[in-house]
Amino acid sequence: MAKSTKKNKSTQHNNSIDCRDLVDISMVNEINQKLKDSLNSGQAISINISNIERIDTAGAQMLCAFYQDAKSKKIKFEWTTPSDIFLKSIEQLGLTEHLQISAAS
């Protein structure tokens, strides 16, 4: 029975990371560690970007690097519905296509 429970946990578990409302240089280390831990788990990852009210270039670069790592490791990945501020910031930085993200995500 214990084996079955472990199996269910590993197949159903989804790493979910909430970026909350701020993704800037002051938060990069904290968020980046969570992203690395998620990548190392090898399980599907979901990033909640729906509440972001501020993102700077350092935060955007971190998300881009993470996205590329997940993609290269073929780890299933999804963005939650992005906030309007997130979309505008990513567009201004020219990263919309790089992150393969749109308002319909």
From TrEMBL:
<dbReference type="InterPro" id="IPR036513">
    <property type="entry name" value="STAS_dom_sf"/>
</dbReference>
<protein>
    <recommendedName>
        <fullName>STAS domain-containing protein</fullName>
    </recommendedName>
</protein>
<feature type="domain" description="STAS">
    <location>
        <begin position="23"/>
        <end position="105"/>
    </location>
</feature>
<dbReference type="Pfam" id="PF13466">
    <property type="entry name" value="STAS_2"/>
</dbReference>
<dbReference type="InterPro" id="IPR058548">
    <property type="entry name" value="MlaB-like_STAS"/>
</dbReference>
<dbReference type="InterPro" id="IPR052746">
    <property type="entry name" value="MlaB_ABC_Transporter"/>
</dbReference>
<dbReference type="InterPro" id="IPR002645">
    <property type="entry name" value="STAS_dom"/>
</dbReference>
